[in-house]
Amino acid sequence: MMNNGSFGCCPASVISALQQWQLKMLRQPCNFFLNDLQNRILESRTIIKDLINAEDVDEVSIVDNISTAAAIVLQQTAWAFAEGKFNKGDTVIMFSCTYGAVKNSIKAYFSRAGGYVIEVPFNFPLNSNEEIISEFRKALEREKGNGRRVRLAVIDHVTCMPSVVMPVKQLVKIVREEGVEQVFIDAAHGVGCVDVDMQEIGADFYASTLYKWFFCPPAAAFLYCRKSATYSDLELHHPVVSHRYGKGLAEESFWVGTRDYSPYLVLPSAMEFVKRFEGGVEGIRKMNHDAVVEMGKMLAEAWGTNLGCPPDMCASMIMVGLPSCLGISSDDDAMKLWAHLRKKFGVEVRIHYQAPKDGEVVLTTGYIRICHQIYNKVDDYYKLRDTINQLVHDGFTCALEFSN
């Protein structure tokens, strides 16, 4: 299991706490929902507030995942068009690597309301942050020259596939300089994976899961809304309208009808687990980063390939080129090889297909994303190394294996 980035992991102590909360709710649901839930969620929100260096606990709303957080942010842009605050053709800017579900939220809310989308090229593999910053700045300047007004920037903190840590502080600074009104950071791989400090990043909205890298069970995440945005005239509402509607986003989010809220309540237990490790969350992050870089270099050397970016541009995940003879020539090949490795060899990793640019000849079109979490052992990566070497030795190619 070298794919912690997809759904995370949950230690036994946190699972136990989860089950205790579930039983408490099931035994006395009225008492739990009416007397316990709000205070316990406030406790979790306070932990998050301190963890991310937010100014005020009211800036933190617990939600189930990034899709919900994106819907909250994008929904208010649709209303802005409907109410005449935004004009037809106003723009959102994002990178081409933006996560598919977030792209769909942009399509469902922003584009459908009359907005225009700027998609900044993400030219993977990468050699430096400057390549990302340069493309972003060029796209902003080009649209400014076209007379478009950029209302919202959507930026990943750590991209999913291919995985790279984005220079969010520099990108937010550029956005502010260019007069973009709102910045939403999609940090699905945020807390527990990279340093997260709201005062330093300076975004209006920042959403992170707590189950990918912070040991909570699915589904628990949060949406940070900067105080100036929280108390402005923005209409921020949870997309599920329930009894708390109109009482502020944090209030609306804590109650969206009858459901299992126990994943929201285990933050204290997750925090206790993290504190067992030297250096706490920072120590775990450093250990994971150092280990995944070491394993990534080992694999690249064994396969005669390359890393997808310099080590300082990765966190607990890294991209490693796969041998070109495997013949990964489409997204479909990547998906099928992912399943093949899992089902036949018991190896769980993600595969990325990197299409060559027009006229470009490249040897490496397939990359593997490996993750490192505290449960991983060196033998996991040796098994991956040997599995790929065996496929190469056996003359495996995607064209032959998946043609039928």
TrEMBL record:
The keyword Zinc does not apply. Signal peptide: none annotated. Keywords: Pyridoxal phosphate. Residues 35-307 form the Aminotransferase class V domain. InterPro entries: Aminotrans_V_dom, PyrdxlP-dep_Trfase, PyrdxlP-dep_Trfase_major, PyrdxlP-dep_Trfase_small. It comes from the Eukaryota. Gene3D superfamilies: Aspartate Aminotransferase, domain 1 (3.90.1150.10), Type I PLP-dependent aspartate aminotransferase-like (Major domain) (3.40.640.10). Coiled coil: none annotated. Pfam families: Aminotran_5. GO terms for molecular function: carbon-sulfur lyase activity. This is Aminotransferase class V domain-containing protein. It comes from Prunus persica (Peach).
